[in-house]
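In this supplementary section we document a worked example of the pipeline. Step one takes a protein sequence of length 498 as its only input; no multiple sequence alignment statistics are reported here. Step two produces a three-dimensional model, which step three serialises into structure tokens for compact storage. The input and output of this example are shown verbatim.
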Amino acid sequence: MTILDTAPTTDLPDLATLLAKGRISLDLPPELAAALSPDQHRAYAAAARALSELAPAPDPAPDTDTDTEADPDPEAAHDPAPAEDYPDHVEPDHDAEEEAPDPAPSAAPARPGGTVPARPGELQDKVANFLADHTHQAYTVTEVTKETGASSGGAVGNALKTLAADGRIIEASSSPRKYTARTPDPYRPTPTTRPPLAPRAPRPASTEPTRPTSPDPAAPAKPVTRPAPPTDPKAPITRRNGQLYYPRQLGAHTDIEVLHKLRACGISALLEGPPGTGKTSLVEAAFPDLVLIAGDGDTQVADLVGSYTIGDDGSYVWNNGPAVVAALAGRPLFIDDATLISPKVLAAIYPLMDGRREIVVKEHQGETVTAAEGFYVIAGHNPHVHGAVLTDALASRFTAPIQVSTDYELAEHLGVNRKAVQIARNLASQQRTGAAGWAPQMRELLAFKAIAAVIGEDAAFGNMIGQAPPDDRETVTGVITRVLGRKVTPLALGPQAK
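The serialised model returned by step three reads:
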């Protein structure tokens, strides 16, 4: 009988007593466990832990009641709850013919003084250490179970399978299945210890629900120091990749200065322009400590706020998403191609951008994250990219739309071939009138310069044709031919070189 079979009015102390006497079990039947969602598993595991900590010490005399329902197969009742709740849980391994049957279950030890529960991954570590101590020898599941003194052959079987799948040990044979340590570098887990759990203090009565909290690895240990703005606002700025960004004029200030002023006032900016015009370069130059999200049609809420992943020890670990990381640290958040993200997904972080400046992470036990001072959101929008949708809700939150186009004079200053820049200007003019659908931007012009330096200018012009969408290649070829005065073809392999 499990705790789900007890009467709903049963008090926790009474349930704990039944648990200590073996009247009920914390294990779920496989058919029920398979039907539960991850959230239901976590809720059940939390209730199970609470009961375990309330359970009194077992009576000196054995319980001779005859109404205890025996479990005919201990291995058939494994609970597939997350590994953080049942660290050494594994499914029975039905493929191993040599598995040792489980011995009769023993009474669970009482934990009146906060006895330490099994450490996550402890069985895997135990098995790995045994094989590392016996290199050049292969063992079956039954042999490992016997030699390590483990109580469950199924648990050992799955621990071995997990270690082999991770490459930490080797599956020497499949029939019968045998495992051996790696050679010459056998895997040994790093020894870990932890202090005993302190006795739980009595919980005061309260009518208000409490929200579970957890340490956040992304929270800074000390206040974050913002990078100081450049002393000369017009001087080139070195980006993360080592390239220089040359500030551009935006009204009475440079673009870098404008973004700094908007951040100070909490006004979110929307950078609009074709791909390759330098939107990301501008934001990286303005905010070296920014957090970046590359949006697309497949972006999910978990990609923004975070999700659970499986750690090295098999336990479930929560990882904050970029929006939460930036909010906690007070850093700028740049959502590139924000309009390619589903509006329903993007709406998850809207509370961080308005007067609330907080977000409830439902996936992480309803944790409330409050944005630290300095948190700021910028978005990139490519209006001509298929699938980009600028909704009213998004536009209303980015109240400073800034048009970003290619600075062709800067391209010449950076050493791009003048005829290549002339071609780009010509195509850009045709694009504005609808006569052309594509024009080279700063990214393509810098690529032209690099290719010309390596394999020649003719190849670079041919590559420019190949960069254009198929529907625009004829137009691009015509412009290049008129400017150069000769025919240019896209890059293509020819006959065998002689």
